[in-house]
Amino acid sequence: MRIRHLWRNLARCAESATVSMSKMDVVGGGGGGGGGLIANNKQRAMIPNKSRGEFTRNQRKDSEGFSEAPDLEFEYGDAEKWAAELSELYSYTEGPEFLLNRKCFTEDFRIHVADKKWTELSLAEHRAHAMRLLDSLEVTARERRLKVARAILYMAQGTFGECESEAEVQHWMRYNVFLLLEVGTFSALVELLNMEIDNSAACTSAVRKPAISLADSTDLRVLLNIMYLMVETIQQEVLADSPEWRTARDTFRTELGSPLYNNEPISVMLFGMVTKFCSGHAPHFPMKKVLLLLWKTILFTLGGFEQLQQIKVRKREDLALPPLPEDSIRVVLTMRAASPPASASDLIEQQQKRARREHKALIKQDNLDAFNEKDPYKADDTREDEDDSDDNDNSLEPETFPLERDEVMPPPIPHPPCERVSFPKGLPWAPKVREKDIEHFLESSRSKFIGYTLGSDTDTVVGLPTPIHESIRTLKQHKYVSIAEIQIAKEEEFQKTPLSGGEEEVEMCSIELLYQGILPNLPQYMIALLKILLAAAPTSKAKTDSINILADVLPEEMPTTVLQSMKLGVDVNRHKEIIVKAISAILLLLLKHFKLNHIYQFEYMAQHLVFANCIPLILKFFNQNIMSYITAKNSISVLDFPHCVVHELPELTAESLEAGDNNQFCWRNLFSCINLLRILNKLTKWKHSRTMMLVVFKSAPILKRALKVKQAMMQLYVLKLLKVQTKYLGRQWRKSNMKTMSAIYQKVRHRLNDDWAYGNDLDARPWDFQAEECALRANIERFNARRYDKSQGNPDFLPVDNCLQSVLGQRVELPEEFQMNYDLWLEREVFSKPISWEELLQ
Q1: CA distances for 529 relative to 207, 279, 362, 549, angstroms
Q2: How far is the C-alpha of 749 from the C-alpha of 740, rounded, in Å?
Q3: How many CB atoms sit inside 10 A of residue 77's CB?
Q4: How far apart are CA 37 and CA 624, in angstroms?
Q5: Which stretches are tagged as biased composition: Basic and acidic residues (predicted)?
Q6: How far apart are CA 596 and CA 712, in angstroms?
Q7: Buried b (16+ CB within 10 A) or exposed e, 190-229
């Protein structure tokens, strides 16, 4: 009876685990790899149910067994390898246009050069032909202009028709792109792009169309393709580059970040395209290409993560601050991933093995009745009941993970001895302490031992016991003053003393110019980016009122065969993944650069992201089977550029499409996940009101599922987000998640007097969080008004010129109407009125 009862309990556990896992699949939307992710229900029906089911099954199969999966060999950086970044510019639907570009170039080239290939010409002949193409771009006929643009695009693509290998294509790409830059092609392309953006006829036609396809954005796509290839190719630094190319690169970087194009940086123009698309006035804009170009422009002009670290070191030196305790990038690279929590299937399997072993032991006993009286299962049943009651008591986290507890963790699996990388012993990060933390510690110590406080005085220790002296010495030894604290203190001084404070010296670098350019419309830009991110997220359901981000991927004629449907399904999923990658990289780069340039620029952007519901949006993104998303195989390597233009294409089959590539993970999806986690960290750090949003939206179980990805950097940012809300989750949550608490202790930086694990911090009490956001908003508005809105200055603080000659000598701009009617004004106001000169002179 007891044995039968045990097996019944195990079966019930297995059934409930299966139900909960199926619910999780429904909530998560099945990850990022469903076979039929098309724009709406009608288009989704184009893909047969069989292929959709097979894709889902395969991705679920790929994600199984992650508990014992090896660490992901992922190297985080500014972007993926150059070849991969080039291939992601084109959707697979654009494949036939490669030959069309080649045809346009060849027809024009043969008119001027009859008996030679492009690769056989001299530099002077190359330059002459590039100049001819550039002159032809200025024709008024649209068809002729498009043909010339396609010929230039073929040059930027490396004149692949005359190349034997992918390496040769990439060599000629670099050569041709620097040649096009030298003759001034980029400026001409910007002018044409401006003209296309303002093309009201194309916008009106696209708005009226029921379904927008690839054909509606042809002109824009060709221009954006050339511009992207130029930016992406020029920013790739190679040791063998000539001095002329290095100089051209530096000049181009400066021009891109300066307001040379239409009196604004090119990034501002691209942001304008994003908002125009989201407003519904230009639904034909190829948004993936716009976002990719915007990302690469920001990355090129402002610099990537290594440049950010260098700027940070230089700024700390300029402010006479001590050097950074470590290089955060290098510390993260040396970290190892922690083992993820065991899954429900692992637990059930362990219980079944244990039950089988005990069952065998029972058979060997002589007296089963004696066993029944002894009842060895009673203790186990009681413990399980207690665990169940504990889980039910946890109201903050409905999806508990009792599988992490020591008594149910599976034993470690022995691995064969292999050569291991040596990792540093001890904690990876040096501890940090803020000035505010030292003040709080001294305040509490003085009130406890002496009975009075001294405000912000951190030096007077009279009357305090010796251990407190040692504690203060240790805290000051690890005190860290950030650049942001210095900037906030300076801003407070400027606000207090507007007259005696003097003029602030603002360095007009690329990031400052960009902030000035996007400041008037920054809220709209953030809302537009998040709208597109929501539409591209794999957990989003297709809605009639959502924006259509597939304008540059859907063909004119929808697929008619299963193979075409599968190919389009892969293309659409890949398209969405690339959009998520670009937006996450844009937001993270801007936040990091703004934070270094001035903390209130960062806070302005961060606050508008929070107001636009960025926090729940990112949590919604992670509320899926994250392993399926990271291991999704939404790419067809034989169709990627430049492979598809150099090699003969094999015949595609359903099996080859379904198999995908052999990579352990999808680089762009893991890159996107890490970026989104870093953005979430940036938004919530030291902001208790936003941390409470993480708690209110029940982010803890969502984030814990993300720990299943065995990649150290991703786990670090997940653990940081769990750490900041631990004090709000209650004792029961901490008791049930000791493995996670241990991982936080091992991997996340320590604040010496931060009670994150026990919830005794005064700041953790959730009162008046709205006042915190309102005070921050007021500080931001005062900063923007003081530095950028000169018209709003207080007239009482403006200097007055008392010299008559100086005032009369000033040049006054008169209105055009007044100048036209000047004679009439003289007659009416001067000549026709008598003037008493004696009174006037007195």
Answers
A1: 21, 12, 64, 12
A2: 15
A3: 13
A4: 15
A5: 360-381
A6: 25
A7: bebbeebbebeebbeebeeeeebbbebbbbbbbbbbbbbb
Which among 530, 201, 116, 482 has a CA at the least distance from the CA of 315?
482
CA distance 216 to 204: 11
- Rounded CA separation 451/444 (Å): 10
State the DSSP code for 475: H
582-632 pLDDT, tens digit per residue, is 999 999 999 999 999 999 999 999 999 999 999 999 999 999 999 999 999
Residue 12 clears pLDDT 70, i.e. is over it: no
The rounded distance, in Å, linking the Cα atoms of 200 and 257 is 28
Distance between CA atoms of 504 and 425, rounded to whole angstroms?
46
Q: Determine if residue 184 is left, alpha or beta; phi over 0 gives left, psi from -120 to 50 gives alpha, anything else beta.
A: left
> How much of the chain, in percent, has pLDDT values that exceed 70?
78
What is the rounded distance in angstroms from the CA atom of residue 605 to the CA atom of residue 587? Answer: 9
Short-list 64, 61, 29, CA closest to 624 = 29
Is residue 351 a contact partner of residue 13, using CB atoms and an 8 Å limit?
Answer: yes
CA distances from 275 to 85, 521, 526, 532, 665 (A): 25, 9, 9, 10, 33
In 70-164, where does DSSP find H-type helix? 82-87, 97-112, 123-136, 142-156
Spatial contact of 134 and 185, defined as CB atoms under 8 Å apart: yes
Rg of the chain on CA atoms, in Å:
33
- The residue assigned the tokens 């005359």 is 162
Terminal Cα distance for the chain, rounded: 122
- For residue 364, pLDDT beyond 50: no
With beta carbons less than 8 A apart as the criterion, state whether 644 and 87 touch: no
Structure tokens at 521: 């419309």
Residues in the chain: 842
Is residue 252's pLDDT more than 70?
Answer: yes
Q: How far is Cα 51 from Cα 36, in angstroms, rounded to an integer?
A: 8
Which residues have C-beta within 8 Å of that of residue 226, sequence separation ≥ 6? 149, 152, 153, 156, 180, 185, 189
More confident residue, 1 or 563: 563
Helices (H), 157-281: 166-182, 185-197, 200-208, 218-234, 243-257, 266-278
**Greatest distance between any 2 Cα atoms in the chain:** 137
pTM exceeds 0.85 for this model: no
CA–CA dist 758, 503 (Å, integer): 47
Kindly give the residue spans of alpha helices, DSSP state H, lying in 499-540. 510-518, 522-536
Please state the separation of Cα 198 from the chain's center in Å. 29
432: helix, coil or strand?
strand
Task: Judge contact between 553 and 571, C-beta under 8 A.
Answer: yes
Residue boundaries of the structural domains of the chain: 82-316+508-747, 435-478
Helix and strand counts by DSSP (H, E) for the chain: 41, 0
Closest CA to 269 of 527, 508, 583, 517: 517
